[in-house]
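User: Could you go from structure to sequence for me? I need the amino acid at each position, not a summary. C-alpha cells:
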C-alpha cells in the first residue's frame, strides 16, 4: 500500500450522523466520541451562529460521504487502523477498543473488562459441559460402539 493511501481522510459519516454526518465524520477523523463534537458544534452555533452554520453547510457540501470498504480493504488497513484508533484484535478476529480518555471512541475499561469476564464465564461453562460429557459413561459407550 502506498503512503498516500494510508493517510486519514475526512469524510461525512452518514451511517452514524444525525444531520449530514459532518460531526460524526469529524469524530471518526479525530478518534473522539461523537457527542463531544456535537457539544462543540452546538456551543459554537450558540456563540457564533452565522459563521458556524455556514461552516457546517459548507462542510456538508464539500466533504464526500465515507466510501464503503470491502472485507479485503479492511484486512489491508488492519495495522493502520489499529495504530490510529488503538483497536486490539483477538485471536478469533474480534476487536476490542478501549478508550483512555473520556472523549475518545471506545468502551470504558471496566465495561470492556466486564465483557471479557462474561465471555470467559461462557467459555468455562462450555468447557465444563464438554468435560462432563467426556467423563460420562454415555461417552464411553458411544466410543466403544463407534470402534466396532
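Assistant: Here is the amino acid at each position, in order:
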Amino acid at each position: 500500500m502506498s503512503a498516500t493511501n494510508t493517510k486519514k481522510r475526512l469524510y461525512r459519516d452518514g451511517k452514524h450522523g444525525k444531520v449530514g454526518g459532518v460531526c460524526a465524520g469529524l469524530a471518526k477523523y479525530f478518534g473522539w466520541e461523537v457527542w463531544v463534537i456535537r457539544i462543540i458544534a452546538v456551543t459554537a452555533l450558540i456563540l457564533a451562529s452565522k459563521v458556524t452554520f455556514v461552516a457546517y453547510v459548507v462542510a456538508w457540501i464539500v466533504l464526500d460521504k465515507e466510501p464503503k470498504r470491502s472485507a479485503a480493504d479492511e484486512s489491508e488497513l488492519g495495522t493502520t487502523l489499529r495504530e490510529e484508533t488503538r483497536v486490539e484484535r483477538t485471536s478469533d478476529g474480534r476487536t476490542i477498543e478501549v478508550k483512555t480518555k473520556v472523549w475518545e471512541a471506545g468502551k470504558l475499561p471496566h465495561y470492556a473488562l466486564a465483557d471479557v469476564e462474561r465471555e470467559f464465564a461462557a467459555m468455562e461453562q462450555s468447557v465444563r459441559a464438554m468435560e462432563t460429557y467426556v467423563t460420562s459413561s454415555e461417552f464411553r459407550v458411544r466410543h466403544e460402539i463407534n470402534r466396532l
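One structural detail worth keeping in mind: The first strand starts at residue 87 and ends at 89.
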